[in-house]
Amino acid sequence: MRTPRSARLALGALLLMTVASVRLAAAEDTVTIGVYTPSAPFNGPVARLEYASKLAAQIGPALGRKGVGKAFARAADLSAAIKRGELEYAVLDGPYLAALGVPYKVLGAAQRGGASEVAWEVVTTLPAKNLADLAGKTVVLPEVGGKSDDFVMRVLMEGELPANHFGKVIQAPDALSALAALGHGRAEVALVPASLPLPAGARRLLTLGLVPWPALVALPSARPEDLDKVASAGAKAGGEVLSGFDRGNADAYRSLARRFGRSARRGPLAVPPQRLAVGDLLVQRNFTIVRREISALLPDPSAGD
Amino acid sequence: MVVLLGALALGGRARAESAEDDESALLVAEARAAIGKGDYKRAASRLDRALVQNPRRIDAYVLRASVYAVDKQYAKGIELMQRAQSLAPDNPDVLSTLGSQLMLGRRESEGVPLLERVGARWPDRYQAHQLLGLYSASHSEWARAEVALSAFLKTRPRELEGEDPGVLIELGNATLRQGKTAEAEALFARALKGTLTGANAARARIGAAWAAASRDCRRAMKLLTALAPLAERYPDVELVRGRCVLALGRGAEALEISDRFLALRPKSADGHALRGEALAGAGQLAAARLAFEEALELSPGKRLYILKLARVERRAGDARAAVARLDGAPELEAGERDWVLEMGEALLAAGRAPEAAALLTPLATRLPEDSSVALALGDARLTAGDAAGAIEPLERGWAGGRGVDPGRARKLLGGALDKVAGAAFQAGDLGKAEALWTRAEPLSDGFRVARNLGAVRLAAGKGDPLTPLEKAAAAPGADVTTLLLYGRALAGIKHWDDARRLLEKALERSKGDPARVAEAALELAAMELEAGQPQRATAALERALEGKLPAPLRARVEMAMITASRAAATDAMQGGSFDRASKLLERAEQLTFEVPQDTLTAVRCELALAATGAGRRDAALPRLRQLARSSASCPFPAPADKLAVPILTAFNEGAELSKAQKAFASLDGLRKSAKGVAEPLLDGAVRWIALQAAADAYQRGQLAQVKKFLARARKIKGASRSQELAHDLAVLDLEEGRLDAAIAALEKLVNEVPESLINLGLAYEKKGQSRRALEVWEIALSSGRVRFPLLKGWVTSKQRIFGTAGDAGGGT
């Protein structure tokens, strides 16, 4: 027997409500932390998920809740989850966060090897001597989200090269994938954080500027009263790829964000010292101190001091 | 014997006039013969008979009186000759013989005048001279003895030559006693050439030694030592030797001699006196006093001992006793020199200087050559407070002479001159003061007089103050005033380093006495200003201001500090150090609490100027507003005296971009009246404001404003000489794409305008020459001349991308 349309609608609504109420109940008991870190050298999505779970397990108890970790491979998925309010906290890649303009409160910068920033490198399989030799080549880098060109030309190349210097810029899911793509010939140049294992035939050509590691951020759905506890828990978090989040390095992301929007360089105008033409004003000046009369110096010649 | 021989000679001149005369002549002749044989009895009887025969026979009277004299029957001789005198009252033989008889008969009161008449009337009557001379000598009438004995030696016959040595001894003694020691010495020497034996020989040698001792003890010592064997017989030899030894400064030996002498003559007053002198010379005044008292006991009333004892008493500090002693002394010749002198010294020592001066004045007038008297008088007058009156006698005392203590004379004269000079100085008579101190200075020890001499010469602006002041400053105990004066003198001849050294020493020595520190600091500061070192002047005055000073002195120091600060600030501004100038003037301003208004205005004007030059608008503007409110006139040449305040106000206000236009408007309004020295000030203000505003606008990206401001700056006189303007115009070219023009202009300015290196790099970068840009920027960075915070980041970026400019690789 076919269920009537109205009954189907009612059942659907009931189901939705149940799911929502279940979800609601679940939200009040848990804290979900998303992880989107293409530039961090996780060895695949599983490793990234494990990291997310571990981090959530460290942060949740600090709030008296259960921590749930979620890993995202694509920026769009992350963005959607944030929009839906599924995530209260996230670990976001530095370039991604900066490209967005750092819209979230940064609670700390991830550390790797004791540093919260890492220099990026130009790695190539070509026998190039310098960047000029790489003109027109294909460049691969870990996904940045939007503004990958700006990240390459303005941030990493610091605006020093023309915008069309490279032939093409492609993104890989993460840093190791980018190097794999280089190894497989899908690109001639990879731009990755330093000190990653290189594929055969690849070499480091140039070291570029520093880029911060991922940041622990509070998303719009995070409760303000929890931020400090989360930051403290984050600072103690451990991991093989990324360890605790340094609370003091929030400005690095805003600085990185500024580098995306490099304006044209402008030098100073010259202003002469505030020289005053005083020569003629101060001429013919005669300053004297009137000396005491000798008779006053020597009121009694018969005396000594 | 002389009388008899004289008589025989005289008798030869009488002649018989008749038969009785013939017989009497025979009798007289027999009597002569008998006298010649020494048969005075026969001679007497013959002469008696001759007188009976011829009672008018004068030669018989003369001879008979002589024979009476031989028998010492002087009364008979006198009586006989008086009878002869009645017969021949004007007969020289009679008078001469009678005079002799009277002398021999101890009727000197009659004999002396008679013999004097004879000697005067008949100068060849040698007997008269001799008798008179010997009598005078025996009665210590030395002058009369000298005259008579000298006359005898001139008139005596050759037969009596043998008498000469004896007479010479007497004559020598008489001259010696009168102090004619040279003549005495010569006379004794003549005597010694003759035949002398026994006592006469001894007397002559002793006399010669005495005379020598009176003149030169050193020379006499040989003679005195040769007389030593005679000492037992003539103990006075030891006495004189002792005196000479004492005079030669061998006091201990003199004491021994005196002791030996006294062993021989314990009751010798002279001996005790010698002992007293020796003890006094050794400083044993108490013992000396006893010795002289003993001498006086033995020879009461002896003037010499009274004087010497009084002197010892005075020296021993018992001036009162000395005065009493001299006061009670037997009256001497009125105004007798030694007594007056000693009394004067005693009164002086007893604190009765005015009496001493009154006593000594007539003596000094009477004996103008006597240095000791003059010295004592000078001392008395000086002590009595009449320094001016003391100078003349002290000069005479200082001129010297035997017996004057040169140390005392020097000290007193120096002191009197100094005192009078001081009074003249205080009365404003600098010429007199200078003359007196010039005289006093070589006589004075220590620093004071030399200092005063230097001071008066400095004050008068005449003569050499440096030499005495140098001496004073080097003397031990030189006071701070000396250092100040010397420093001033050195400053007068522009020996700045030396003056500074001394005045700093004075300042150092004055520590602990704030008022002295202030005076020294003022002197030092005055010098430093003259030396063109006003900054040092301020440092000195700061030290003075640290102390607690009485109000008038503090006011002087503060005023001096303001002056020095203004001078130092002027120097600083002329050298371009406006910041330092403004700090100096701020310090001066702190002290302007009670200064005249024009001083306060001057300080404020200069401070506003300095602060403007230093870019300290916060310091400049408040003062400028105060000055504007009071319509003050600044101490600058016109028209800057009136225009400086509005120009500087616009200058400072125009530093803010938002007020630049208002500032321009204000300056434009002053353009017409800003002539002369005000014009460059105004032009400088416009140029600076325009360039500053252009720079601000450029940083904000307001290129249109930049162009406007630069256009304004170009209109200023001399704009073409402004390298900063040339640079900024080149940057405009750079902004507007005229890269080659920009590069050409900027390359010319790299040495003068540091910013040009940065903009040159940008020009190269815009031209796609990144490596060249990097090269230029690396030069800019390493030069250290450029202050542009972004440059380092740009260089780092380029180095990262391209390597350093020197690398082979790295791109274009």
What would you say this structure looks like, in words?
- The complex is a heterodimer of chains A (305) and B (812).
- Chain A has 305 residues and is α/β, with parallel strands linked by helices.
- Chain A has 2 domains: 11-116 and 213-260, D-Maltodextrin-Binding Protein, domain 2, CATH 3.40.190.10; 118-211, D-Maltodextrin-Binding Protein, domain 2.
- Helix content of chain A is 32%, strand content 21%.
- Chain A has helices at residues 5-29, 45-59, 75-84, 94-100, 148-156, 175-183, 227-236, 251-260, 294-297, and strands at residues 30-36, 66-71, 89-92, 105-111, 117-124, 138-142, 168-172, 189-193, 203-212, 215-218, 243-246.
- In chain A, helix 4 (94-100) crosses helix 8 (251-260).
- The longest helix of chain A has 25 residues, at 5-29.
- Chain A is elongated and about 130 Å long.
- The termini of chain B are far apart.
- By secondary structure, chain B is mostly helical.
- Chain B contains 44 helices and no strands.
- The chains are: A alpha/beta (305), B mainly alpha (812).
- At the A-B interface, strand 9 and helix 9 of A face helix 24, helix 26, helix 28, helix 30 and helix 32 of B.
CATH superfamily of the domain at 722-812 in chain B, called what?
Tetratricopeptide repeat domain
Number of separate domains of chain A: 2
Largest interface: A-B, 51 and 97 residues
Major sheet summary line of chain A:
6 strands, mixed
Element order, helices and strands of chain A? Answer: HEHEHEHEEEHEHEEEHEHH
Give the overall silhouette of chain A.
elongated
Number of helices of chain B: 44
Roughly how many Å apart are the termini of chain A? Answer: 135 Å
Radius of gyration of chain A: 32 Å
Side by side, the strands of the main sheet of chain A go 2-1-3-10-4-11
CATH class descriptor name of the largest domain in chain A: Alpha Beta
CATH architecture of the domain at 722-812 in chain B: Alpha Horseshoe
